[in-house]
Amino acid sequence: MVDFTLTDEQKALQEMAHEFAEKEIRPVAWEYDVDGTWPQEIIEKAWELGLMNNHLPEEYGGPGASYLEGALIEEEISWGCSGIGTSIGANGLAAAPVLIGGSEETKKKYLGMLAEAPKLASFCLTEPGAGSDVASMRTRAVRKGDKYVISGQKCFITNGGYADWYTVYAKTDPDAGHRGMSAFVVPKDDTVVVDKKEDKMGQRASNTATITFNDTEIPAENLIGEENKGFKLAMMTLDRTRPGVAAMATGISRAALEMATEYSKERVQFDVPIAMHQAIQFMIADMATKTHLSRLATWQSAALLDQGRRNTIESSHAKRFASDSCMEVTTDAVQVFGGYGFIKEYKVEKLMRDAKIMQLYEGTSQIQRLVIARETLLPRHIEEPAAATA
Ligand code: COS
Question: Are residues 101 and 148 in the same domain?
Answer without folding.
Answer: no
